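A common beginner's mistake is to predict each chain separately and then try to dock the pieces by hand. The better habit, illustrated here, is to supply every component at once so that their relative placement is modeled jointly.
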Amino acid sequence: MDIREALYTTRAMRRVKPDPIPEDVQMRILDAAIRAPSGGNNQNWRFMLVDDPAKREQLGELYKVCIDLLWATIYKDKMDDAESDSTDPEAVQMRKIIKSVGWAQDNFASYPLLLFAFDRNDSSGGSIFPAIWSAMLAARAEDVGSSLTSVLAFKNSETFEILGVPEDKGWKMAACIPMGYPTGTWGVAERDPVHEVAYRNTWGDDVGFVIDEPLWSPES
Ligand SMILES: Cc1cc2nc3c(=O)[nH]c(=O)nc-3n(C[C@H](O)[C@H](O)[C@H](O)COP(=O)(O)O)c2cc1C
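With all components supplied together, the output reads:
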């Protein structure tokens, strides 16, 4: 797969089939992930694949609680907007996210594979997120959908207990990435365009070009 196709179309793919992901595919995803950079090449990371049905069930129960907590706290205002009949683009987008996340909440235990990433002595997360994103890109190259979730942090101790992670060794859960073969199709991720979020030379100065359409599309 062209790297640009993976870069443009890797997005939160939450609706997936329960079909298992073969071991050779899992190997290629993880082996690509650990090629990622980390500060000082410390590689102070651990990854855990979870496919055990009983553990997925337990984690699914926790996930439900965590998402409810997320909506009721950090996302409370956005939830209120989304639940109104506002046509504001942010409210419209939030409604889509709520639906998609709701699917994950209802079906968490049916994800065939969960990839957990842990790091240590990395307060910014800068040394683990390159590997996480590499795993997601590598999954995309295998037609495996994935989504990055961090919300289990609300129930960190319970998650550590289920996974047998030692609490006293400094490990921090960076993300849980549910994976599976998508039920839908891949599309280009919609984002605010470059010229609205990038400057040149001085903060606030025009970057010097306008990009109205993504520079890669399935037809290019
Ligand atoms: C640091 C981080 C934490 C995230 N946490 C969650 C999460 O807990 N649950 C979830 O469903 N998605 C989570 N996401 C996924 C984002 O919601 C998603 O990337 C964003 O809405 C863009 O979606 P798209 O790529 O499909 O356009 C997280 C993404 C990042 C980068």
